[in-house]
């Protein structure tokens, strides 16, 4: 199996889909020069500037026009550059794309992949670092993906392009270069979590880059005799409740970790859903960013970060403070 | 309009369409006011019928249009059935959007009417994109995007018109300038002039009397033929006037005393077209019959809508999305 | 004490603040004719068109310009007309207003009230009905208010105008005409819930119009011998954890109800926070809209609605299905 | 520029400011590349120094400016201290934003520089609003809003410029046309022309050579005086060229071979100003000394920044908000 980076894995998926289906095309600023994170490098040479299309600095039009083109029968992949800039196209995504099929009584479809590179990336500061995945899970009509590995970025990109619903596709900026094996025959279904590690003491639920951080924490915990099960949700809508429920039934303990702000983050949805359904041995926990902003200075930025030691510590505490 | 080459048949067809639009809206309004059958807000285009009629008659069935919150006229003119539209306004089964959209989201993809829109100006980028899609797929259709004067103050106006220019797309933007943005005089909130904005964005721009259906249709025919030929976007400013209030329940007291009456008396496109036809020798009885017919059609549409059932409750959960649909995940 | 409508109560607060402080002004479409819900009627006559300012249909500019004017020393009240249209100004609110003070190291402030009429209002369909309060609670830098009564709409508007932070102020469209007594000497602090009813069996937590629906449900429950405590959070950020914790410690049962979509709604935050801190007698519950869209037809619209009978039924179930 | 009325002192002051801007950015770039001291992206305005210099010298200290992601020059020209700015780029205590903003959010409210902005075009509506605030408060300050050519394709350009026109606000919009939007030639993505957009939005619009600081300053002086006098907004298109890449690490291979070198040789505003001063009889040794002094100032700034501590960890939680602050509600 070839080893490739998270960026290249998605690029391979895009290229394969574009070869198979002439109606698939990409649009965004600077794509003809490979895009700002080089996740499109080489594609314009193969597919030409109509299908790897540059765009003016017009996020609202990029999103709105891609939607129009989707209704006219194409399958656009929309590049938003930074998830933060996608906020310039919120009406288009939330009021138009997510609602059109329903409002028009099923007459229209919006098969689109909306790529929004997200998350903290050293010293990018408050306007280039946000993780807003929970917003999109709250919007009916949208599918929401947060791949954490090259394999998933390949397989989920393939699934997203094939999907007839609009898919908000959140790649994490910090792991563009991370490498891993990619099996191009491996398909991932939305709503199926990845079991990144099995364990019987505590269930760690996460997604995106923080899922990788959880795996790291689980290794530390293993040295202390605590076997953590790590569930990487991969897609947040739909999300794999069955996998989480099964795991928590087994371990009796739930810890959810993510990079986004804790308050009204998707971790709240996971903890609340489990708490509503499953009695646990210990009170469940969430780790996310404080409700503060992401600063430029690295030590200040770090105050907003959920780290492997924090995750390991929280899991240990859950093991120790067992109710009698 | 010169009488010499006045085409009687075309003139009658245009009057018929305008009468149908007027009758549809008058029927809907009374259904709303007298019977409380229409539950949400409806925006009437009374006084503006010539724009929809004159522009859309120049389109093919497979051309696309996109509309605004004031979309009944465009939808009828593109060929949608009054029945299904009236059912939609009453929120009934058989409505063109299954009762889910109502007036503000009226749409008929069968005739390539890609929807009214509740967000002012939002259709401009979407329409540019539909034209982008046509170009990518190598089609020979064109797109017409209607919007109001007030919409020209929203960012998507600039972004969408620029997009069409940059990618050289087969689209006609039609600004229906009825002078008002809800209760505000658009000119009070607009710096410069809308047609100049379109020109500055690189588009060939035509200004027209939007209440003279005959010359408007001729102008539109030239423009849409040119767009189909060249694939290049253009812009049409159609000056008109909304005789009714902003919504059906708006008394429009913000307008200067007598303005609406004076405008109705002087610019109503239906009255003007009737005069033209009478001047061309059509007996006025024939014109009255045509209006009566239009009203009868809309009465029948209302009757059908009135007796149609509500949509089945379960349809509330359908057509949201395939993956993670509330049909599977209700709570 | 005078009786007034929810709309008039806020208007009184605005008028009083404008009399006291010449830097307070309002800006939005059609304000000179009273605004679309008549919540500004008469103000232009008293304060003139500069301070009750019309605006072009430019939500991004309304929000952005008001922010600039706030930095220049005024205190704007921004009218967004429908909460849905505020999505056209998301970059301005989230990337600019909420972050400026922090990004600039405390050099700037944005004392603004951003009014966003929200919620279902018969047959307004998908683009004029949304409740997106949980989005704003997720954004550091913002205060979030959801008043449910004329008194609170008076007192909280006063507090919001006085506040030096940007306040997202969500009035519910369905209760503009609802009437109640208003004590103009009564102040409300952000983060202090209103105890709308006391009870010992189950804690109902809600806000905005649904808080009123909970009071109705509690009356039904009382006839069945179930004493529900109804807590109206009023402000969602900050929210009154202490009041909720105290109540749940007493009742042992938590039911959160809101109009917004359940998935990633603020109810998840409340349930998760309580579940992380307090062992309960029964599994907690949430009632919110299914993750579906709001239709025009009334019977379809009703499928998305949380009603008093649904709340009462859920509370009853919690009493019955007591774990042994 | 006619030599006859060339003001030697002003000319030297302008050169000094441009040299300071250039030296600040060259110092920051080598701190980033050679020492990895600058952690985030920085956008250099090398080649564009004349615009900040020529326009801002016409302002009062209590006038406001708003800038873009490429804001070092504007900030220095408005009077901010290089020390505090360099500390900000290094994310240190004493940085003008306490290390929270970095280059892309550089700001100095003390000199009424209301911030750089990481979102292209977002400053345009905010700037219009600052001018709105001035008008409401009855002040006599004016606002200058800088943005790039690429920003003219964003909706807020239309909404903000229209706003200024409608409310007749004391603001000058300055488009620094360096021809590129990151790696894209702006003209490839722009339909029509930017100055025409401003005119269509009702603003008096002046086009100027943005690399000739002398005439630019004269033009700007006329314009800003007029704005202060009339309170009416205007627009200035300043043609310039970014000699460096988009970010300090951008090799800018998307530009035609030799373009940057040719432009540097022919249009560099610092080289042109030096020539003009030499022609006016200033010994070049004096000019060299001035450049050296600028570099020495920035070396000192970098030394101070390098040895400054990180901001205290707790400051990460301060200045978010008063009510519901993370200081009270950390997790
Ligand atoms: C983004 C947005 N802002 C405000 C509104 C409320 N609104 C509905 S129609 C309207 C007036 C639109 O004026 P114009 O574009 O001229 O169209 P007209 O109503 O005159 O046909 C307004 C302000 C809206 N629907 N969307
Ligand atoms: C809304 C938004 N879209 C995209 C970007 C990414 N970006 C940063 S600078 C830039 C180019 C801006 O071009 P221009 O306005 O001409 O300014 P210049 O960089 O040339 O000074 C882009 C696309 C952004 N910061 N904000
Ligand atoms: Mg209008
Ligand atoms: Mg540029």
TrEMBL record, chains A, C:
Statement: the UniProt record of this protein carries the keyword Oxidoreductase: yes
Required cofactor(s): thiamine diphosphate
Pfam families: Transket_pyr, Transketolase_C
Keywords on record: Oxidoreductase, Pyruvate, Thiamine pyrophosphate
Listed GO MF terms: oxidoreductase activity
Ranges where the Transketolase-like pyrimidine-binding domain occurs: 4-177
Ligase in keyword set: no
Protein's name in the database: Pyruvate dehydrogenase subunit beta
Lineage, opening ranks: Bacteria, Pseudomonadati, Pseudomonadota, Alphaproteobacteria, Rhodobacterales
From TrEMBL, chains B, D:
Catalyzed reactions: N(6)-[(R)-lipoyl]-L-lysyl-[protein] + pyruvate + H(+) = N(6)-[(R)-S(8)-acetyldihydrolipoyl]-L-lysyl-[protein] + CO2
Record-linked PANTHER family: PYRUVATE DEHYDROGENASE E1 COMPONENT SUBUNIT ALPHA, PYRUVATE DEHYDROGENASE E1 COMPONENT, ALPHA SUBUNIT BACTERIAL AND ORGANELLAR
Record bears the keyword Oxidoreductase: yes
The protein's role, per its UniProt record: The pyruvate dehydrogenase complex catalyzes the overall conversion of pyruvate to acetyl-CoA and CO(2). It contains multiple copies of three enzymatic components: pyruvate dehydrogenase (E1), dihydrolipoamide acetyltransferase (E2) and lipoamide dehydrogenase (E3).
Swiss-Prot/TrEMBL GO biological process terms: pyruvate decarboxylation to acetyl-CoA
InterPro entries found in the cross-reference section: DH_E1, PDH_E1_Alpha_Subunit, THDP-binding
Domain Dehydrogenase E1 component residues, every copy: 17-311
Cofactor list: thiamine diphosphate
GO molecular function: pyruvate dehydrogenase (acetyl-transferring) activity
Transmembrane feature ranges: none
Gene3D superfamilies to which the protein is assigned, alphabetical: 3.40.50.970
Superkingdom field: Bacteria
Keywords in alphabetical order: Oxidoreductase, Thiamine pyrophosphate
The protein's name in its UniProt record: Acetoin:2,6-dichlorophenolindophenol oxidoreductase subunit alpha
Species of provenance: Neptunicoccus cionae
């Amino acid at each position: 199996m070839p080893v490739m980076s998270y960026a290249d894995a998605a690029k391979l998926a895009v290229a394969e889909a574009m070869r198979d289906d002439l109606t698939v095309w990409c649009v965004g600023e600077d794509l003809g020069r490979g895009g700002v994170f080089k996740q499109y490098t080489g594609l314009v040479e193969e597919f030409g500037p109509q299908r790897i299309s540059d765009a003016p600095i017009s996020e609202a039009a990029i999103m709105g026009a891609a939607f129009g083109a989707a209704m006219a029968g194409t399958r656009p992949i929309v590049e938003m550059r930074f998830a933060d800039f996608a906020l310039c196209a919120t009406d288009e995504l939330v009021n138009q794309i997510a609602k059109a099929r329903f409002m028009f009584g099923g007459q229209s479809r919006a098969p689109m992949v909306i790529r929004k590179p997200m998350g903290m990336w050293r010293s990018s500061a408050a306007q280039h670092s946000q993780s807003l995945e929970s917003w999109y899970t709250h919007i009916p009509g949208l599918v929401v993906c947060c791949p954490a590995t090259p394999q998933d970025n390949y397989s989920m990109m393939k699934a997203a392009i094939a999907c007839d619903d609009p898919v908000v596709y959140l790649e994490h900026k910090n792991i563009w270069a991370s490498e891993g094996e990619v099996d191009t025959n491996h398909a991932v279904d939305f709503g199926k979590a990845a079991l990144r590690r099995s364990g019987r003491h505590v269930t760690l639920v996460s997604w995106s880059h923080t899922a990788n951080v959880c795996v790291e924490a689980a290794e530390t915990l293993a040295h202390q005799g605590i076997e953590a099960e790590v569930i990487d949700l991969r897609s947040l809508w739909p999300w794999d409740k069955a996998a989480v429920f099964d795991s928590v039934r087994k371990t009796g303990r739930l810890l959810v970790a993510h990079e986004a702000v804790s308050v009204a983050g998707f971790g709240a949805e996971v903890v609340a859903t489990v708490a509503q359904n499953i009695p646990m041995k210990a009170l469940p926990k969430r780790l996310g960013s404080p409700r503060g902003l992401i600063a430029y200075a690295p030590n200040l930025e770090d105050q907003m970060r959920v780290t492997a030691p924090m995750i390991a510590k929280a899991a240990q505490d859950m093991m120790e403070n067992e109710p009698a | 309009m010169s009488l010499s080459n006045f085409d009687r048949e075309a003139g009658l067809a245009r009057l018929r369409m305008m009468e149908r639009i007027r009758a549809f809206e008058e029927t809907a309004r009374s259904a709303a006011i007298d019977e409380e059958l229409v539950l949400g807000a409806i925006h009437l285009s009374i006084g503006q019928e010539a724009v929809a009629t004159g522009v859309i008659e120049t389109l093919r069935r497979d051309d696309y249009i996109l509309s605004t919150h004031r979309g009944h006229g465009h939808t009828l003119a593109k060929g949608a059935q009054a029945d299904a539209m009236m059912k939609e306004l009453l929120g009934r089964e058989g409505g063109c959007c299954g009762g889910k959209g109502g007036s503000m989201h009226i749409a008929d993809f069968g005739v390539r009417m890609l929807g009214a829109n509740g967000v002012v100006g939002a259709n401009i980028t979407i329409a540019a994109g539909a034209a982008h899609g046509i170009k990518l797929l190598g089609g020979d259709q064109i797109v017409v995007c209607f919007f109001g004067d007030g919409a020209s103050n929203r960012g998507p106006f600039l972004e969408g018109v620029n997009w069409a220019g940059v990618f050289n797309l087969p689209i006609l933007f039609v600004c229906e300038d009825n002078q008002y943005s809800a209760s505000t005089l658009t000119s009070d909130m607009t710096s410069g002039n809308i047609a100049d904005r379109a020109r500055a964005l690189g588009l060939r721009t035509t200004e027209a009397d939007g209440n003279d259906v005959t010359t408007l249709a001729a102008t539109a025919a030239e423009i849409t033929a040119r767009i189909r030929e060249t694939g290049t976007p253009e812009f049409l400013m159609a000056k008109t006037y909304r005789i009714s209030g902003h919504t059906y329940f708006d008394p429009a007291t913000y307008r200067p005393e007598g303005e609406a009456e004076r405008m109705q008396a002087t610019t109503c496109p239906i009255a003007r077209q009737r005069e033209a036809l009478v001047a061309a020798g059509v007996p006025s009885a024939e014109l009255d019959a045509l209006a009566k017919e239009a009203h009868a059609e809309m009465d029948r549409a209302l009757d059908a809508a009135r007796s149609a059932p509500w949509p089945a409750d379960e349809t509330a959960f359908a057509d949201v999305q395939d993956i993670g649909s509330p049909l599977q995940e209700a709570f």
